[in-house]
Amino acid sequence: MTNSEFMSNPRYKAGRQFYACCALACALMASSIDLAAQSYPSRPVRVIVPFAAGGGADIMGRTISQKLTESLGQQFVVDNRAGAAGNIGTELVARAAPDGYTLLIVGPNHTVNPHMFRKLSWDPVKDFEPISLLNSASYILVTHTSLPVRSLKDLIALARAKPGQIIYGSGGNGTAGHLGMELIKMMAGIDMVHVPYKGGAPMLADILGGQVSLGYDNILTSVPYIRAGRVRALALSGARRTPLLPELPTVTESGLPGYDIVVWQGLLAPAGTPPEILARLEEATVAAMQKPDVRERLAKMGTDVIGSTRQEFAASIKVELDKAGKIIRQANIRAD
Prior knowledge:
Layout: H1 3-7, H2 10-39, E1 45-49, H3 56-72, E2 76-80, H4 87-94, E3 102-106, H5 109-116, E4 128-144, H6 152-161, E5 167-170, H7 176-188, E6 193-196, H8 200-209, E7 214-218, H9 219-227, E8 231-236, E9 262-270, H10 275-289, H11 292-300, E10 304-305, H12 310-331
Parallel strand pairs: 1-2, 1-3, 5-6, 5-7
Antiparallel strand pairs: 3-9, 4-7, 4-8, 4-9, 4-10
């Protein structure tokens, strides 16, 4: 068959028409995605907080939603979907349409739960697109005043002298406070008994009452009791000191180098969300986190403002996944 005969063959012509149609369809699809991104958002956006109202994730969700509403001209509405250690709300977003109209506020649960629950319906990396790491905050290690220690070094020495006799509390199995205390035990080679609570408030109440000796609590609730002399502060869990208690050292400064445990919040979208929409959300989110009123509000809570890029947040998630997995495996932590 000659070249002219081949090109005049009906099958060849049909093939050319087919591929031309495919190319046109792809071009139209790309054009529609680009137009959708340019007009985004054109209707209200739902921001899922997978915890009850009033906690740190909820506060951060409402803060960023308000600022995105102001900058992008559509309502960003917080929707609290609590339950199953954050898994219910997280699954909802993992299965949502990847169009930018359903977003998710996440925290340490996002990198802890995959190691705690054997069967999850979502993957922390594959099912989501990072937008920005919003903030992070240290915990304060506080003790009842009857415990004869005034520093982390004192606590480690006492725990070595009395293995298995010091009781510490946490806001629940797998919480950042729990993992943070277990990491101290591992790094210091000490043994303390864990009592999990259903939240940080009842744990702190029992530390104040002397039912448990110590535990990690958030900065905002601890500082008033520290200043009133009702509990004693030993160290901060993060890598930096806090301006609210500038004299308080970090765990690393207290003799456990490399220690760094923080509570954090970030913003995610479902996997497959168009990159143009992600870029628009990232830009608006980073700008929002630098607003003076946002920085001032979070500073009063002892929270460090971050507002990272998508790439930085993706890298952070992988680091936190690895860190949580190592602690959970070594300490043999299980979900309640």
